[in-house]
Amino acid sequence: MKRKKTALIIAALLIMVSGGIYFYYGYLFKEARNIETEKPETSIPASKLIEDYNSDPQKADLHYLNKTIEITGLVTKETDSVMILQSAVFCLFNQKLNNNLLNTKAVIKGKCIGYDELFQEIKLDQCTIIKPNN
Q1: Which of 31, 38, 55, 116 has the fewest beta carbons under 10 Å from its own?
Q2: What separation in angstroms does the CA of 118 have from each of 44, 52, 59?
Q3: Taking the model in full, what pTM does it have?
Q4: Which of 42, 35, 38 is nearest to 111 (CA)?
Q5: Which residues have CB under 8 Å from 85's CB, separation 6+?
Q6: What span, in angstroms and rounded, lies between the C-alpha atoms of 78 and 115?
């Protein structure tokens, strides 16, 4: 009787541990997305993205938030790892930029992480330059 009880407890523990592992790897643990290799869900001009966020931020979030997008716009500011398009789209790169694309058009792909009300900018993360359009 005691062996049966011990076997049942061990079996229950094994089921709980394997269920926990399955839950962790199946639902909680997700590898980081590689935005550079992802295909963009949409391609739009930076002016349209700005217009969408200015008119209805919640609706714009439904369309763009956490999605890979490709935007085209005029580079108005460029620093070590940041490029700003149309003075309102903040593009953060994983590496330093050596391009001098100031005042030229560029096509940028990145993950939209939302609207920053403090700086009044739309933020994109993990950006890559698809092509500079001189």
Answers
A1: 31
A2: 24, 18, 19
A3: 0.74
A4: 35
A5: 46, 71, 73, 74, 75, 76, 91, 106, 108
A6: 19
78, 99 in Cβ contact below 8 A?
yes
pLDDT digits (tens, 9 = 90+) for 16-45: 877 767 766 666 656 677 888 889 999 999
Tell me the per-residue pLDDT of 82-107, one tens digit each, with 9 for 90 and over: 999 999 999 999 988 887 889 999 99
β-bridge pairing 105-116 and 42-45 = unpaired
Rounded distance between C-alpha atoms, residue 111 and residue 124, angstroms: 5
Tell me how far CA of residue 32 lies from CA of 10, 29, 56, 109, in angstroms. 35, 9, 29, 17
Determine the residue type at 77.
K
